[in-house]
Amino acid sequence: MTKKSVCIIIPAYNEEKSISSVISSIRKISRRYDVIVINDGSDDKTKEVTEQTGTGILNLSFNLGIGGAVQTGLKYALAKDYDIAVQVDADGQHDPRHIPQLIADLDSGTDMVIGSRFINKTNYKASFLRRLGITIFSNLILFTCGKKIFDSTSGYRVFNKKTIAFLVRNYPIDFPEPESIVKLLRNGFVIKETPVEMNRRATGESSVTPLKALYFMASISVAILIESMKKY
Amino acid sequence: MYSILDNSLTLRTQLFSIVGSILLLLIIINLIRREYLKEGYSLLWLLMGGLVLIFSLFNELLFSFSNFIGIDYAPAALFLVLIIGLMLISMHFSVAISKHEKRIKELAQENALLKSMLNKKERKRKTSKK
Question: Fewer CB within 10 A of the end CB, N or C, for chain A?
Fold first, then answer.
């Protein structure tokens, strides 16, 4: 069997401090992976720092948000005919050491693998609100799609070719992580979760205040319900 | 049952509203004529301007309409019609904006992919020249 080609998609918005260490730790895992950084209209030196590492980069003219950035990477992967695409955050919270395991778990019967913080007990300590939100989303997805997804907000994901082609055509933009799960499940795609450790953000502070968190929770819940009512 | 307020649209009010709605229609037509407003978007505005004009020309129509839906104060029925019209127009705008946002996103993505392709070609050309 020939080895499958792998494209690692890193959406980055103002991540000049962490992007190069993320890229070099991926390189340490394997040289076989092609890395593409999606610079989502950053105001800082994300573009220059990435170019210094010699990594492929796609520069969006303005900030599209995480959904639009990831979709750009998927479009790239589709155009270059990659077998597998891996989405990794640029802020260093996804440990690249899990990538080989995540790819291995993408067997012939699976369309997407999610790196999940909550399948096994891990050291990841999420805030109370975040855990509450994730429990609510998890149950909403169970209710609308009949499948338990523990970590629906994780952006650590592996896609096969079929999933890439599907998401290039319809990728949700506002809350892409949970919405895309509903979209994929409703269209008969098979999703699997693999336990991963996640680091706390390496640099920068999360900008989410408790009030914002509640607001996000409500809008994501509504988005999941709306997504599950859409016609295809 | 008629309220005493039924005849509150005096001749002066009527004249005022006729002039106002003709002005509104003229503004809309002028915007379309100068191509500031696409014909497709302007249909709703034209309909609304026309509706206001019809109601101000034939105010009995307004009275019978307000009676029909059970509103005692006839001008309130006019407000209702206008508010419904405005809501339809702003809904129409939300739909149009969503469509444009999606198109702009697609263009930005395509642009990023094309830029990178062009960059690669340029670099190849430069290295082969050396």
Answer: N
